[in-house]
Amino acid sequence: MAPAIPGYCLENFTCFDPAICKKQRLVFHFLILIMIQDVERILFHEQTILRRLDELGAQITRDYEGKDLTIIAVLNGSIFFMADLLRRVQLPLRLDCLSVSSYHGGTASTGIVTFDQTSLPEVNGRHVLLLDDILDTGHTLHAICARLRSEANPSSVRICVLLRKDKVRAKNMEADYVGFDIGDEFVVGYGLDYLEKYRNLPFVGVLHPSVIERK
Fold it and tell me: Per-residue pLDDT tens for 140-184?
């Protein structure tokens, strides 16, 4: 039996091709049901997210028309966001990625930002748009922006996030483009994880506190 989460319906998801066999569909359905039991409630369904990305893509296209644009995605949480958003940006652009971490397995940023790469993308004289899954404490994005500006000489650096938490930040950091505002809750799905799980849920939902307690 599916968990009693309002709006949950496999047919609402766009990730299925009609040609996929029934067995594959049932297996995926089963895996989703296992993960969804750990979700307290759904905040944004896939179709809601994609409609918002239509708007963000159009706005970014207008703002960067005629400019040398480099998109830098912050791994791993922004992968789904990046893939869906960039198909809606109707401009020539370059794409690069940075792998950094600050949560280190917890539900809150430790404040210690670790860069997994020794070198930065080549963005000298280019306009940079950073893509990240969520603006939380601001530690991660603040550290990335500081390094880019001091070491890579970009013409500009802006930030685009899927989610922005409504909270006091440890760093004075704001995003230029925001998908959705949320409360100060721990969320998973659509690329966001807890202990590397739940990234492939096709929605954004609040993780049930009991899951964190039984870590």
Answer: 999 999 999 999 999 999 999 999 999 988 778 899 999 999 999
pTM of the predicted protein model: 0.82
Long-range CB contacts for residues 87-95, cutoff 8 Å, separation at least 24: 87/57, 88/53, 88/54, 88/56, 88/57, 88/58, 88/61, 89/57, 89/60, 89/61, 89/64, 90/57, 90/61, 91/60, 91/61, 91/64, 91/65, 93/64, 93/69, 94/69, 94/70, 94/126, 95/70, 95/71
Q: Cβ neighbours of residue 25 under 8 Å, at least 6 residues apart?
A: 10, 16
Dihedral sign for Cα atoms in the order 184, 171, 107, 193? positive
Residue 193 is a catalytic residue: no
Residue 59's domain comprises 46-182
- Counting the structural domains of the chain, the total is 1
Q: Are 118 and 99 in contact (CB under 8 A)?
A: no
In a domain? residue 111: yes
Per the omega criterion (within 30 degrees of 0), is the bond before 172 cis? no
Q: Which of 38, 84, 133, 136 is catalytic?
A: 136
Q: Tabulate helix, strand, coil % of the chain (nearest 5).
A: 30, 25, 45
